[in-house]
From TrEMBL:
Gene3D superfamilies with a match to the protein in the record: 3.30.70.1730, 3.90.105.20
Protein known as: 60S acidic ribosomal protein P0
Keyword Ribosomal protein among UniProt keywords: yes
Domain (Large ribosomal subunit protein uL10-like insertion) ranges: 114-183
Role: Ribosomal protein P0 is the functional equivalent of E.coli protein L10.
GO CC list: cytosolic large ribosomal subunit
Length: 322
């Protein structure tokens, strides 16, 4: 024989359960449970059993339990959960990988009919084709301005029709038509709204970020810091290399424009006095080694002379008529 507990006893029992979870788990998924039935929620509990625990309850009771537990333990990180307890939400305590648990929760969705007054989470489009309804049901289609025709004694929709737009409330006519057509346009399940990880709170989209995404965002941040530092002439670790290079360019420009010189500037002045040295310096990069006293024209002629030798190797010693 089961003993019925009073409301006060149920609250004490719930408080102990929640406090034990706060001590045991450091990762929590806050999920919206709108339009989720008890059977569906039980299936989710069974699917997550082993690594995770789903806890539902009144937000006011959960807030009070968290506040009291935070005062007792001195762990103020739990208080970050309080702003997230808005609406019909539940807590999923887990020890597993947050991304894997979030993906597992998303699998448990159940199709649902369009009920009157419900806000549509997606666009509902009625596809063209035979509905199987007799001609006496055409009044539903006429009210909703859906083009139809009678084909072999049944009503047939001619073109696809956007019946309900996302964010609109479902009317009685739309709900009746979708019920007659046997269309269950919506699907519901626990939707992860926020993630709590050892005191930190962030959006579930963060779980989808890869290392490449993090590196790209980090590089973008460094680029912005560098640009801002250079614009303000404020030295930072990110901008220091660019500042040194720009300063060196200014000093080099002064040395080139005046008689002042230093070892690194002398080579640049030599190249400016004799531009042909640029071509000589670039010759080794192209694979042609020119003598010290050779001109760029002589180096090019020597390169042309080597080409027939390569062609003779390809002929393997045979002429065209052998």
């Amino acid at each position: 024989m089961t003993v019925k507990l009073s409301k006060a006893e149920k609250k004490v029992k719930y408080d102990k359960k929640l406090c034990s979870m706060l001590d045991e788990y450091t990762k929590v998924l806050i999920a919206v449970a709108d339009n989720v039935g008890s059977n569906q929620l039980q299936s989710i509990r069974q699917g997550l059993r082993g690594e995770s625990v789903v806890l539902m309850g009144k937000n006011t009771l959960i807030r009070r339990c968290i506040k009291v537990h935070a005062e007792k333990t001195g762990n103020q990180a739990y208080l970050n959960l309080l702003p997230l307890l808005v609406g019909n939400v539940g807590l999923i305590f887990t020890k597993g990988d947050l991304k894997e648990i979030s993906e597992e929760v998303a699998k448990y969705k159940v199709g649902a009919p369009a009920r009157v007054g419900l806000v549509a989470p997606i666009d509902v489009v009625v596809p063209p084709g035979n509905t199987g309804l007799d001609p006496s049901q055409t009044s539903f289609f006429q009210v909703l301005n859906i083009p139809t025709k009678i084909n072999k004694g049944t009503v047939e929709i001619i073109t696809p029709v956007e019946l309900i737009k996302k964010g609109e409330k479902v009317g009685s006519s739309e709900a009746a038509l979708l019920a007659k057509l046997g269309i269950r346009p919506f699907s519901y399940g626990l939707v992860v709204q926020s993630v709590y990880d050892d005191g930190s709170v962030f959006a579930p989209e963060v779980l989808d970020l890869t290392e490449a995404d993090l590196i790209e965002k980090f590089a973008s941040g460094i680029s912005m810091v560098t640009s801002l530092s250079l614009a303000l002439s404020y030295p930072t670790l990110a901008a220091a290399p660019h500042m040194f290079i720009n300063t060196y360019k200014n000093v080099l420009a002064i040395a080139v424009a005046t008689d002042y010189t230093y070892p690194q500037a002398e080579k640049v002045k030599e190249y400016l006095k004799d531009p042909t040295k640029f071509a000589v310096a670039a010759a080794p990069a192209s694979g042609v080694i020119a003598p010290d006293n050779a001109s760029p024209v002589a180096a090019k002629e020597e390169e042309k002379k080597e080409e027939p030798a390569e062609e003779s190797d390809d002929d393997m010693g045979f002429s065209l008529f052998d």
